[in-house]
Amino acid sequence: MRLLNCLRDNLHWPKRVLGISKLSAFEFLKITHSDLSHNQLLNQLRKQSIDPDEILAKHHRQLTCEKELAGILHNLNVNYRIMKRIDDAKCVDWADLVITIGGDGTFLLASKLITNNKTPIFGINPHPGTSTFTLPIEYSTDIERIFEKLHAEDYTVLMRSRIRTVMTGEGLYQQPFHVHEKSRMQNEKRVDALMRSTQRKIADALQPRQRILPWLALNESTPVRSITFITYFQVFMAEFLASRPIVLTIQADEEKRFMIRSSGICVCTGSGSRSWFRTMNLQTAETVQTLVAMATGRQLDEKETREVLHKYHSNLLFPPDNLKMAYMIYEMSRSSLWPKIISDKRMCCKIKVKSTGFDAGLVLDGSVSLPFNDGSTASFEIRPEYSLKNIILQ
Prior knowledge:
20 strands, 3 domains, Tumour Suppressor Smad4, 12 helices, NADK, NAD/diacylglycerol_kinase_sf, globular, alpha+beta, NAD+ kinase activity, six-stranded mixed sheet, Rossmann fold, ATP-NAD_kinase_N
C-alpha cells in the first residue's frame, strides 16, 4: 500500500471525510422505472436508440471509483461516509474534508453545502471529458496517489471566490425549485395554479421581506429571461418565458444607477468566467475579419484571425480567487428608446439589481431558483470569508 501505513499516524490527517457521489444515469433510470427489470430497462433504452452499453460503462466506472475511495479511507482508519444524496447540511459540517465523485455538477452541489471557508474540497471525475473543478482523470484510477500527494504536501490551496446574494421582495422563503421544474409547471391546470398562487401569497405575507440566501454562488448569479441558456457558476436573472425581455435597474459599486431592457443579466466569479460568461461573449472568425477589414482595409488570414480570437477570448477570463465579479447584460436593447452608451459588461466589487419582471427568476449556479418579479431587488457581494477552499494537486 505504498505510503498508506505511515499516513495512519499523521496527526494532521483529516479524521472525518465525506464523499459525495453522483447518481449515475443507470441508477437514476432504475429509480424512475422501478417497475422494470434489469433486462427490460436495457431493452427500453435500445428502443429509444440509447446505447445501454455506454450507460452501463459509466455506471461501473462510477461504482469502481466509489469502492476504491472507500477502501483507501478504510485502510487509513478514517471515519468516512460516501453518500449519493445530501438531504442534511449537517453531514457536510461534520466533515474535515469533502471529496466529490463525478463531474463539475457534483462539485457545484457539494460547494453549495459548504458554507465556510475552512472545509477543503476536491473532486474525482471517473468519466472522460473536460472538467473545470475536478482532478485530471488519471487520478480516478489511482486514488491512492492523491493521498500520497496530500501527505507529501504536494498540492496548493485555491480559495475560489463565491457570491453572496441578499434579496428583498416576495416569495423568498418558499421552497426553491430547480429550473427544469419550471417547464413542467407551465402545463398545470389554471384552477390548480390559482389555488397554489393564493396559498403562496398567504404564506409569503407572514415572511420577512429580506433574505440572505444560504447558497453561495461559485460560478454565477443571474436574473433570468430564458432558463434554457443557464449553466453553472454564476447568478442569472431574467424572465422564464424566452420571448419576453425584462427591464432591470442596475447599480455597480457606488456609481449612478441605470435602467436597461434585455434578455437578462449574468453575474459571475472568476470560476464562472470560464463558463457561460465566456460563452455569451464569444465572437466568430467572420466577425473579427469583418471588423478589421472595415477599420484597416486589410483582410486577416486564418492564422492572424485565430490569434486575435484567442487573445480576445483569453481576456474575458479572470482568476478564480479574484475578489471582484463581472456582470454581462445579455442581448441588451439599443433602440432609440434606450441609452446606447452603456457597456454590456464590466468588473465590479458590488452590484445591485432591481426587477420589473412579470414571471422572472434568479438562478444560482444553474440550479436553485427563486422568484425575481416587479419590485424585487438582489444585491451581490464577494468577500474572503465566502470563499471555497479547493485543493489543487501539483
